[in-house]
Every structure is written in structure tokens, then in C-alpha cells.
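Batch job 17 of 40 flagged for manual review because the log was empty.
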Amino acid sequence: MNSFLVKTLSATFILSLSSLANAINTLNPGESLNVRQSISSNNGCFKLIMQNDGNLVLYRNSDNIAAWATNTSRTSTNIATMQTDGNFVTYKPFKIPTWASQTSGKSNSKLVLQDDGNLVIYQNSTSPIWASNTTMDCYTKPTPPPPSPIP
């Protein structure tokens, strides 16, 4: 193989990996999570998953604590979509909405699962327009022991 072709293939592969790595924690306009699909924070501490019970849930992976949810279990909800109008919406069949971020009219918005556990919709990549307000540590901090009694 000639060196130009090898360099071109290598550059293409690196760009593809880089695009994939940037997208693991993000839903861009028009992208969706179907049942059993998820996005994860870049540090791997948090996961947002569209569960098969219809609930969209944000979990801390270290202890499987549910930090936030749409509370749409048992509603037949089967997809969560970051719409092109800026609204993040869960739907059941026949495009019937079951939950929404109420952020329509904010085009160029994307959903990001941050490394601190906060799920945020950013407009134009810099302006937060909605958040789950679930900032937390990656791991459970041990509970300190009670103070010793004074003799």
C-alpha cells in the first residue's frame, strides 16, 4: 500500500473515532434514543437510558442510583427525541408525547450528559436552556463514622 493511501485511511479512521467519541454523551437535533439505547457521560460515571418500561432514566453507574427520570413508566413510551426545534420529548406509539422539556423554539440545541451528572440542553453549544439539576459526584462517598463518645 502506498504511503499516501495509508495516511488518508489513518486520518479518516481517526476523524471517525473522534466524531464517535464526541457524540457518546450527546443527542444532536433530530437524534433519538429507542428502547434499551443510552448515552453516557464522557467519564463513564453516568448513563441516560430509554428503558423498556417506558421511563427515561439518568443513572449514576457506581451504585445504580436513579438521579432523574421522566416518570413515564407504564405509558408505552418507546423513544426520546432531541427535536430540531430544541424540545426534548418522549413519545409513545403514534407520536403521542408523554414528557417534554418545554424548550421548543430554541433551534440549534443539543442534549448533553455532562461528567458531573447534569443533563443539560444547550442552544448554540454554549447557552444552557434546560437542566435536570442532578450534579453529583461520580462515586458514592463513604459515610463518616459517628464521633467517639468523650470519656
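Reviewer: the log was empty due to a logging misconfiguration, but the result itself is present. The first helix runs from residue 3 to 23. Unflagging and moving on to job 18.
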